[in-house]
Amino acid sequence: MSASSLAELKPMLIGDQWVAREDDALESINPATGAVNYRVSVADAALVDRAVATARAAAASKAWRDMLPHARAQVLGRISDGIRAHSDELARLQMIENGKVWSECRAQVASAAATYRYYAAVCETLGAEVTPSRGDYLSMTAYEPYGVVAAITPWNSPMTMEAQKIAPALAAGNAVVLKPSEITPAVGLAVARIALEAGLPPGILNVLPGTGAGTGKALIHHPDVRMISFTGGTITGRNIAAVAAQRLIPVALELGGKSPHIIFGDANLQAAVDGVVDGIFEGSGQSCVAGSRLFVQRNVLEQVVEMLVARANSIRVDLPDAEGAQMGPVAGFRHRERIESLVASARQEKGEILAGGRRPDGDRFAQGSFYLPTVIAGLSNQATAVREEIFGPVVCVLPFDDEDDLVAQANDTVFGLASGVWTANYQRAWRVARALEAGVVWINTYKQLSIATPFGGFKESGIGREKGVTGVRLYQQSKGIYWSMNPANLPE
Ligand code: NAD
Predict the structure, then answer these.
(1) What average pLDDT does range 172-196 have in this prediction?
(2) pTM for this entry
(3) How far does the centroid of ligand 1 lie from the alpha carbon of residue 290, in Å?
(4) 154 CB less than 6 Å from ligand 1?
């Protein structure tokens, strides 16, 4: 028997049952060391069916359906408290699965706790409408849950991505079946345990680890799943949307990006370069909003590139739990190979690698999937590395001459998730912000995110908006109710 098959086998959660399954078990690998963390039970089609039936019954139960908003809000508040109380455990689970540095994992746990707290408040204060009557009747708009929501999530930030779906879906009155990424299944399982301890009725949150092709596919095709909320790559999102279209169920999609980060010549260059560095190298660039295309006005290009290269070379790449580590490994070995092949394409297309472009030296990094912060210049806006989402610590620098040239280049992409503009000219900031085809524009800052502000992509970066008060409406359908006021319609 191999060492990995002796590793702990984590069960999945269906209702209040922790179900262990040896067949097809996933191996969770620590990307910093290559070691097996544990194995994780995988849901086959029969277990998907059992979980959806459990969720459906729980969603329809009086315990959940008739729970008053303030009571539901209390449950969400207790989940938030439970997440905070288990901060170290949750941060560690994310760190050993996706390799993000400890400080970032801790910050994401705090953000997830805040998300549950926020949707507790939304749940408690959410209203419905009495619409102006156009006759002898009272007309109302009520909002009702879909029933069973399938939440499917990626590996880069399971802590926050899963909270962003589960908290509003529960506030809206649904039951959720979560299919976390096969690379990061443990965070979702731990939060579900915390939710049960917080008094969430069993069956309202079920967690089914597994692959996309197996568990994910079975889940989205299940006839009792009435809504799909997906975050992940654009190709996967397109496939899931096609299934949702066939099934005529709603789908929310948070997809990939290739976000333009823009520096005009009049900007505070020091602050701008700091923003660029955080915007691309935080989380080893594995962020959907990573500012991976850097557009710099030609008159400051040389200066910005020099500052950027110096900063990239000074980033402390280290084991994610090492004191002062700023960048850990990328999330896996296959993922690193993909990053390497895109950097190789940049070399072939006459790009100049100004920093990084390789794995770090030294025994400390030998077993992990590390890759250095990388700066590439000299590519055209049509180059493969400029057009494709790399999802790694790689920024491509491109010059521009004026505002029109900039807007045309920045918008010349299939993606439209995020963008950033650095300039001292507030009129220009406004014009460019309005002209960029992106769901988020940061002005003289980057990657600042708030749970209170709706978030989502233009173009192939997604459909629908998560977060904010309106984020709860993603998980509800409205119902018009007409109530006659005509006494003649009542019995004598
Ligand atoms: P992915 O698309 O490969 O996988 C995402 C999830 O979908 C995983 O849980 C996977 O198992 C599942 N899946 C795959 N195929 C499926 C299928 N046919 N049916 C059902 N489920 C299926 O993405 P990833 O590699 O895990 O994550 C990286 C991607 O996520 C990047 O493109 C990134 O930009 C994107 N992302 C977007 C946002 C956003 O908010 N817009 C946030 C984070 C990540």
Answers:
(1) 98
(2) 0.97
(3) 16
(4) yes
Q: Is the pLDDT of residue 116 over 90?
A: yes
- What confidence tier does 1 reach under pLDDT thresholds 50, 70, 90? low
| Per-residue pLDDT tens digits for 253-265 | 999 999 999 999 9
**Nearest CA residue ID for atom 20, ligand 1:** 216
254 carries an active-site annotation: yes
Q: Hey, what domains does the chain have and what are their CATH numbers?
A: 9-255+461-479 (3.40.605.10), 260-443 (3.40.309.10)
Which residue lies with its CA nearest to atom 34 of ligand 1?
Answer: 256
What pLDDT, on a 0 to 100 scale, did the predictor assign at position 6? 78
Please report the sign of the dihedral spanned by the C-alpha atoms of residue 38, residue 39, residue 41, residue 45.
positive
Tens digits of per-residue pLDDT, 227-239? 999 999 999 999 9
The finding on whether 255 has its CB within 6 A of some atom of ligand 1 is: yes
Catalytic residue among 97, 162, 182, 254: 254
C-alpha 478 to ligand 1 mean position (Å): 29
